[in-house]
Fold this sequence. Notes:
Helices cover 56% and strands 0% of the residues. The protein contains two helices and no strands.
Amino acid sequence: xxxxxxxxxxxxxxxxxxxxxxVIPLESTTAAATHSASDAVVKEADAxxxxxxxxxxxxxxxxxxxxxxxx
Length: 71
């Protein structure tokens, strides 16, 4: 990522960079909850986060300016 940042700065005068954190709250588990049940909750939250990240990437790609041709 740093190489891309350096390249964009040199070629286009752009130095934007962003890090996005997607946080999915988990339902609280009780001491009686089974390990497999908590694994299922984590897997479901992970799948949701991946879907959100995918949709977010598509949305951001649609609004970000394009690099000039030949880059």
